[in-house]
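call fold target=tryptophan 5-monooxygenase
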Amino acid sequence: MLSKKPNGAEGSSDAGNSEKPLHSKETLRGADENRGGLGKPACSRKRTATIIFTLKNEVGGLIKALKLFQEKHVHLVHIESRKSRRRDSDFEVFVDCDSEHEQMKELTQLLSTHAQIVEITPFGGCSPLAEDDRADAPEADGVPWFPKKISDLDQCANRVLMYGSDLDADHPVSEAPPWRNVGKLKCFYFESRDPTVSLQGFKDSVYRKRRQYFADVAMTFKHGNPIPKIHYTAEEVCTWGVVFRELHKLYPSHACKEYLKNLPLLTRDCCYSEDNIPQLEDVSKFLKGQSGFTIRPVAGYLSPRDFLAGLAFRVFHCTQYVRHSSEPLYTPEPDTCHELLGHVPLLAEPSFAQFSQEIGLASLGASDDAVKKLATCYFFTVEFGLCKQDGKLRAYGAGLLSSASELKHSLSGKANILPFDPILTCNQECMITTFQEAYFVAESFEEAKNKMREFAKTLHRPFTVHYNPYTQSVDVLTNTHNINSMVKDIRHELDIVEEALNQLGKPLRK
């Protein structure tokens, strides 16, 4: 459950916004493969460095350059060459080497007289992004801590912004218009309602006690454990049924094809029906088989950073409680009706799941400003996004697909519809208690994904991450060892593709 902090109130640290172009100077990234924890230099004297230099495409040029390594007793670990991206007449040489600091210093000085050094990744200092097995490693060099393996989410999931006794402070309980509580509410998902109608839910002591039970279940959950089964009351099932029936009237004409494709599968495999609230454990197993996503129960609102971090591991933080029965078509916060009817059907779609994960991956270790922009793009796509299908607008955002009134409004012809462009979308104001002032439409999930990829490249971060689905962990690509391992995996995948194409091609030749 994602909370939108107004005005980027998650802090003001803006790590690494001054990106340097590659010149014939050192670009320090600390590719020391022997380093220890965050900000702690290793004690080994002999370390790995990477040098990229440019040579003229002439006979004997490479031999002369490599002879300098031999003269300075610098051991070559790996070498590659490619045509220069700057001049057609030049080529670039990529070298991994082991040596002591003084020898490398002498080598680079000598090499610079024979070639243009494009980039050096030295060993003089340790990157704050070193591999670290400790989940509570401190922040360093302005890079916020982020989870590197899926079990690290245990550190994030309980950092809720609203929980237990805070219900009074974070929910409207009087005749006053609910938007007076916007500063505290921090909520993304609202059904439009008459502001003069009071919300009695959080004056109800029985309901409050029930909510505390759901919060306790989520707060004690740990990665790897099954999600506890909930025995919903008859009143909760009745409330779910009202929402279920109202929305199912609209889905055939308002929901996107992917949603309509997956909804019957959820009915079959997870017992979606108007008189049954699906169990999160069943839904999690279903999603795992469809797109690799899993569900994790959460007690309340998470910060944008913590929520998006879950998406990076294909984990969706999900509530289990049901809105108060007094107003079944309104909720001041996302409940299980919103999660199961709005989010889950699309998370079962592989292309949409990848789109969600890539937003999450882009957020890891990013500056507060970058996280704010990514969260806003998430809001106007995953929550309130529209797409074009067969020449018609259809909804794929969970906030629309779980809100009958806003779903109808967004496709009524009266709403302001704009093309999805992350550069513009990230600056759009997220409305809290009213319909959105604008909705953004993408031609397809693939188009939205490609645009977000390009946008993510503009949000400078001093490293790149890669998700390893086998270990459910994030590899921080700060040294050539990690990159070479990734290249080997890609080559293996390409070999499989090549073999499959060859097999498909054999019958065609006969």
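return ok
The radius of gyration is 26 Å. The longest strand covers residues 47-56.
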